[in-house]
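I have been asked to look over a protein record a colleague put together. Alongside the sequence sits a line of tokens, each denoting a local backbone shape. Please read both lines and tell me whether the tokens look consistent with the sequence. Take the sequence as given and treat only the tokens as open to question. I have pasted the whole thing underneath without changing anything:
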Amino acid sequence: MQLISDYMRDERSLRLLNELTRKTFGFDFDGWVKGGYFEGDYIPYSLVEDGKMISNVSANRMRFMQNGKVKNYIQIGTVMTDESRRKQGLAAELMKHVTGIYEKECDGIYLFGALSAYGFYQKNGFQILNQYRYTVKEEFCIRDNGKEPFKPVSEMGGEIREKYLDLVRNSAPHSPFEQINKYGLQLFYTSGLDNVFYAEDIGCFIVLEEDDGIVLQSELSKEKTALSDVLKRIDLNGAKCRLGFTPLDEDNDKCVAELYDGADDYRLFYRGEELLAIEKDRLYFPDLSHA
């Protein structure tokens, strides 16, 4: 059995990771890496035996501007073991190895774990943390027909793609809890541009998705664009609108905040007291930052 890591640009090792990831989660990293969106912040730690990957735990370097201060976190992701080798302690061995590497080099370690893995993460030293999730009040979800609407980027010319990629790196902050190194993860979710929209007159891109209503996942513009100005340009057709990020303080009056534990989807697990500020300060990890 061999431990390999930090190999995303090695074609053979990436192929092994892709095989296990497809089998376990139904996706792979091939297009993400070949498209140039991987920039080194995703670091897999994998056990390989007889030419086959049998277990993996990945570390994601996450840099956030959190209430005016830079925080360096590690997000654990892609925790998986081949079904033929489960319940042999392989993932626990890798988890101990990864947390041992990063624990003293970051402000905290966290992950979004499936409900079925609740016991596994607790046994590995993680505790549960809640977040606050924000829904826009109905009175601010009214389309203003005098404003230019957001239009699908997928229907625009090639230059708009480069403009979007630039703003993923260089946007003004639209949240008190903004991921600084978001390029890789945001493009993991949006490289196809089918969920990206643009309003030319205000130079603003948004990412919209449907999930029990409309989810405004991201705002990107050179200068800060008011949340109210964005909402006036979206035709919600009576649907409720949730934010996939924490709003700026000046936009809190437009939103309802609810304590959120992950509901039926996940639990947020953490190691490190610095992360307690997430619940204390009513913050929410951006949906597009989930690894």
The mean pLDDT is 95. The two ends are 26 Å apart (CA to CA).
